[in-house]
């Protein structure tokens, strides 16, 4: 009996490529990246390179400049910073990138060096994040740690917020919402960056600066250093209900305070700001809004793409969750809370990259007045 003919040989069926672990490694390496940057700042590595007026430093000279025992470990750290886009390198020398020169050298006016250390909040909040998600609130010890950290944190925000506030002052000028002698109420004035920037734009203005007793002196010092202290009225207390020396304001600032509050307090705080602004003023909200919920998203925006586009804002909201009673805010929250208070969110924009600002005005304004 003859054998059956062999089956024709055709191209092999392609198997699907296995799913790679790159996103998992990216998250793991994010932890390493943060501590590489933190170590470089602790060592004064960026400042040392900023002092060099030549073509950069090799590992041995860089080790000498930062007080390291030898070039080997310094090479590993510096090459990692090159991979992260924070240093440049040629065959044997390391140099600052423009980003590092502007944001990581401690003497730069825009320096974020201190913010790198303090922006993540109390370090102990992160290992306990699973428990916080389960219970809905961070461990009280973490909250206490944040209280102790807060003065240093608000100082660290100063350079970044100065740039934002300066740009917002120019925008208010462009829109005609910036009178020659404005009254400003800064609810949660923090470092004093907003009040000093706004007063530089309007030296004859007056700012009512509200914050807690351990923070308000920082803002007062910033105003004193800027020669503007006589234009500032300090008020110590809870910005939600402390009595104020003015009944109305041309500009009310809520800079990075709403996202740290529970939703009910955030809603009430925005309502107070709207009431202070009245029919003719403007509420300026600077924050990092999370993605809107599905009913508030534009048609065609799927949740995955929106979340990926909001990575920065979501990570900062998670930072709030790790150490405060807040979950962050959304633009939908702002629209709803403003509407309930008789106002509307008339515009949102980024005056500098990754810094989100919303402008809220009374609904009694005519379309011409808000254009």
Round the Cα radius of gyration to an integer and report it. Answer: 25 Å
Structural class: alpha/beta
Mean pLDDT: 92
Distance between the termini: 93 Å
Q: What features would you describe in this structure?
A:
With 371 residues, this protein is α/β, with parallel strands linked by helices. Helix content is 46%, strand content 14%. It has 14 helices and nine strands. It has helices at residues 22-43, 45-51, 59-66, 71-83, 98-103, 113-118, 129-135, 140-175, 193-201, 216-225, 263-277, 303-309, 311-323, 331-340; strands spanning 87-89, 94-96, 183-187, 206-211, 232-236, 251-255, 282-287, 343-352, 355-362. The chain has a seven-stranded mixed beta sheet, sandwiched between helices. A two-stranded antiparallel ribbon has the order 1-2. The protein is globular, with a radius of gyration of 25 Å.
């Amino acid at each position: 009996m003859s054998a059956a003919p062999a089956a024709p040989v055709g191209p092999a069926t392609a198997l699907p490529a296995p799913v790679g672990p790159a996103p998992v490694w990216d998250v793991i390496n994010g932890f390493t990246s943060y501590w590489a940057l933190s170590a470089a700042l602790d060592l004064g590595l960026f400042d040392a390179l900023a002092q060099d007026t030549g073509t950069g430093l090799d590992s041995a000279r860089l080790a000498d400049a930062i007080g390291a025992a030898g070039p080997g470990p310094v090479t590993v750290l510096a090459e990692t910073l090159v991979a992260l886009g924070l240093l440049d390198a040629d065959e044997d020398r390391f140099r600052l990138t423009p980003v590092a020169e502007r944001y990581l050298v401690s003497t730069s006016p825009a320096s974020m060096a201190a913010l790198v250390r303090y922006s993540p909040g109390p370090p102990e909040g992160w290992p306990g994040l699973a428990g916080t998600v389960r219970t809905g609130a961070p461990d009280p010890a973490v909250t206490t740690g944040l209280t102790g950290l807060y003065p240093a944190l608000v100082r660290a925000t100063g350079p970044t917020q100065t740039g934002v506030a300066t740009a917002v002052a120019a925008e208010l000028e462009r829109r005609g919402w910036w009178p020659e002698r404005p009254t400003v109420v800064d609810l949660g004035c923090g470092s004093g960056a907003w009040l000093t920037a706004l007063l530089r734009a309007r030296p004859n203005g007056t700012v009512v600066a509200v914050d807690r007793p351990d923070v308000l002196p920082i803002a007062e010092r910033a105003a004193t250093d800027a020669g503007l202290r006589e234009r500032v009225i300090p008020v110590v207390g809870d910005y939600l209900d402390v009595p104020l020396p003015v009944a109305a304001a041309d500009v009310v600032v809520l800079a990075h305070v709403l996202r740290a509050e529970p939703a009910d307090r955030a809603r009430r705080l925005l309502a107070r700001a709207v009431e202070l602004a009245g029919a003719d003023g403007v509420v300026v909200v600077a924050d990092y809004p999370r993605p809107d919920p599905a009913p508030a998203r534009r048609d065609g925006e799927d949740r995955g793409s929106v979340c990926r586009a909001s990575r920065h804002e979501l990570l900062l909201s998670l930072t709030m969750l790790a150490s405060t009673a807040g979950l962050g805010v959304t633009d939908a929250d702002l629209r709803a809370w403003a509407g309930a208070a008789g106002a509307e969110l008339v515009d949102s924009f980024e005056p500098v990259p990754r810094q989100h600002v919303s402008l809220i005005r009374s609904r009694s304004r005519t379309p011409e007045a808000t254009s």
